[in-house]
Amino acid sequence: MALRNELRDDNGFLWTAKWITWDNWYGNMTDGAAAVHAANPDLLIYFSGMNFDEELRDIFTRDGALAEKGLAFSTLPYVDKIVLEVHNYDMTGTDTDCESKLEELTYNAFLAQDESSPEIIRPYPVVMTEWGHAQNEAGYASVYSTCLRDILPQQQVSWMVWVLGGSYYIRQGVQDYDETWGLLDHTWKNWRCPECIASGLQPMVANTLSSVRGTEPVEAS
How far apart are CA 5 and CA 8, in angstroms? Predict the structure, then answer.
């Protein structure tokens, strides 16, 4: 159960600025998580970070904002149900290499899974609940896409692609809006880019599964 999608700064809406603090984040997240846990103690509870859910480091590190404020999860009855979710995009096409991409993601999120790291308070599972790009050959050939298709299975990070649907009833004032990032085409009947799925996402799915099963990875076609 996810609690909040893509917290961000005021983005021009001044009435929200005062709420974007780690104190309020902690209070609202723990209140929401307590309600979810009371309703169903078996559910995993997804906590998102700041800045469009790209930054989680202040949640799990010993020198992070929560630790500095004395805000902890360790005594909460659902602490073992918490999952950290992260989003990642390359909207400006500035990703240049996979090593830098891995460093960025490890610093902001993946380190939370490292049980041996002295930097973290306790380990948490991490899921990349959003990543994606235009569903075409150029999108899949980008450094961003190529790197994530390798990095996520290697780091044993679960993932979800944004977005599945190929169109909307209405979006941005446009009826029957076409979603060029959708895995499905405009009719929702076929893959938007079948060759991209076959050579890109299908091997990634197989490699994600093989990484946790200990089997040999699959090479992209």
Answer: 9
